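Pasting as-is:
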Amino acid sequence: MKFKLSNKATIAALSTIGAFVSMPALAHHPLAGQPMTTFTEGMLSGIGHPVLGFDHLFFVLAMGIAALFTGRSFTAPLAFVAAMLAGTGLIMAGIQLPLVEYVIASSLIAVGALLFSGKSIGLAKTAGLFAIAGLFHGWAFGETIVGQESIYANVIVGYMIGLAAIQWVLAVGAGMAVTSMLKVFDAADAKARIAGGVVAGAGAVFLLEGVEGALFAAMGLV
């Protein structure tokens, strides 16, 4: 199969991005783990958290591209954002969710596979996938808050606002980018499918790392 020059450039760019998944995840915190005490610090942490975590960032960008093909690129990501806020609320309330990191990695595989298939599964099913993933991503985000010895209401409000805003902007921006820059208007476009393959591959790497870590821990090797 021969690709046009623009497609080759796309593959190179996506391969470069994909290489980052073999690197350890960053701190997930723009304040370097320092306690948050103000609304602004909470909002900055909320904005930086999904940007600094490759697993979360990959999902949000892929979600925005998948949302584009539902015909609701502005509203479909709201399902993820709403569920994400609910998930953050769950951990703040002390409610545990099982297998969080595995579900997050699996969500990457699922949305990547959706893009790679070259088909749109419709708004309702896509929003359902986004919502389930959002619940677990949000729970993971909430660990930033509950991990502090003391927390203030203004910090929580700022964190939630920053977290919701940046993810909606990233998702919508990803959809706009593939149409304006890559000229992708159809789910069957090779560039969209390549992007899906990269995202699914990243999810597989994260999932295998998690399984490997659990096995080593069970054998007392870590």
